Structures are given as C-alpha cells and as structure tokens.
Amino acid sequence: MNPLTPRVIFYLVLPTILWAGNAIVGRLAVGEISPIMLNTLRWSLAALILLPIGWRLLKSDGPIWQNKIRFFWLGLLGVGSYNALLYLSLETSTPINVTLIGGSMPMWMIIIGALFYQQAVQFKQMMGALISLLGVVIVLTRGDLSSILDIQLVVGDLYILLATILWGFYSWMLSRPGKSTERQWPWAEFLLAQVLFGVFWSTAFLGVEWAADAVVFEFTQSTIALLIFVAIAPSLIAYRCWGLGVTAAGPAMAAFFANLIPLFTALMSAALLREPPELFHGVAFLMIVAGIVISSLKKSSTD
User: Fold this and answer.
1) pLDDT in tens, 67-77
2) I need a surface site. Which of 50, 142, 184, 246 has the fewest CB within 10 A?
3) 227 near 105, Cβ under 8 Å?
4) How do residues 95-137 score in pLDDT, each as one tens digit?
5) 210 vs 20, 153, 156, 191, CA distance in Å?
C-alpha cells in the first residue's frame, strides 16, 4: 500500500465533497430543472469543455471507433442512466438517503461479479456486503427495523437502488477493458468518449420526458449557476482528481474515502437544505463503513 501524502489525500477527499455537492444541487434543482433535462445539459456542457483537449479521439482513425459498442454501453450505464436516475431519485428522496442507499454498492458488486464475471466470492466480502446492506435497510426503515415488513419506499429510494445496480455493471465493465486500449488514452479523451455516448442516451431519454410533458427549465441565474457547477465540479474536476488519487493510493484505500460522501452530504444538507441528519443516518453510515472495512481486510498469515 502506497503512503498517503497530503496531495493524495487531497485528490481523494475533494471528489467526495464535489459528489456530495452534486446530490445537494440535484435537490435544489427540483422544480427548476427536470431530472433528465438537468442530466442532458450537465453532460452536454461537460462535453463542450472537454472537446478542445480531447478532440483527437474523434479523428477518423481514433480508437473510439474501434470500441464504439463498448462505449455505447458504458455511456448508457454511467452518464446516461446512473446520473439521470440520481436526479430522479432526488425529487422524492433526500440527499442523505440517496447517498447512503448508494452504500449498497459492495453487495451489488459481489453479485454482479459472481453472476456475470466468474469472480469468486470471498467470505469477508460477503460479510462486509451484508453489514453494509443492513446499513441501507436502516435508512429504508428510517431506523425502525421492526417495521421492515411494513416498509413503504418512496419512488426515489427505488430509483437510486436501480442506479446503484447499473453503476455496478458500469464499474465491472471499466475493470475489464478487453481489447480496448483506453487505459493508455489521455484522461480527457477517455472521459470524452463516455460523455459523448452518454449524452446520446440522455438526449433519447429527454425525448421521453418531453413526450410526457414533464420537461421543466427555469432560465434564471441560479439554474445557470447550478448547471455550470455540475458540469465542471462533480464531472470534470472530481473524475480527474479521483483518477489521480486511485492511481497513487490504490482502489482499496480509495474505497474508504468514497464513504465520506454520505458524511459530507449530511453536513451540506444540514447547512443548505435544513435537512439535518437523524440518529439512524449516523448508525447506517457507520455500518456501511464497517462493511467496507471488513471486506477490504487483508488475509492474515494464519488463514
């Protein structure tokens, strides 16, 4: 394990703050920008920012064209679906709930890996995932586990669960590049490839939102500011810093930092949305972190 220098810590902490801010912005945008419109505008603006530095990818002999089917799916699962479902979930659920439910990711990663990628399931991983899942159940039951049979989920909770599962497939696809040489591409080109295909999907989904007469866009200074923030901070800056941090510290250590997202979301909710965290949020957060720690423990020499 590489040492955590102040620079590496900065690279890993900053994205968690920005992604927490993205959840807050999604909540603030309710009633001003409809979810699919927000997602489409966010990534369209991000693509325009990336084009000046990643345009070489689009040349006729660019590597994206040899891997268009792969990025067709990456764009759907990541930019196109996950972010749209995130914004949809924030219409009825809270940013704290959304980020904590996202903590069920370890369980879905294990299930997807075992079913679709022939990945052996380790006992510590399953135990960690179950503990994290219990933390999610605490959120869904609002801290009253005895009410689990009477649970009434808001639709936003279901949206973020679906988004989390899709992100699991997206993550596994990223870890299996196959014949794609994407790991040798400049970061801007790799991100641009995903964004362009993601914008294609998001625009298609926007057509559905339009047909349902659900498109909302209030052209105000606040909405423009929100769009600029989500296009730059949680999209470009966060992705770039996270890549640098993971490269330096390794994915196992980076996973611990990812669990800071619910904490920062709770703090921002209390400060900006007047939605202070409750005791069960804290318990759930600790259980999600404990699950990640257990699943990441190194095998002892006596095992």
Assistant:
1) 999 999 999 99
2) 184
3) no
4) 877 877 877 777 787 788 888 888 777 777 778 777 777 776 7
5) 28, 27, 20, 27
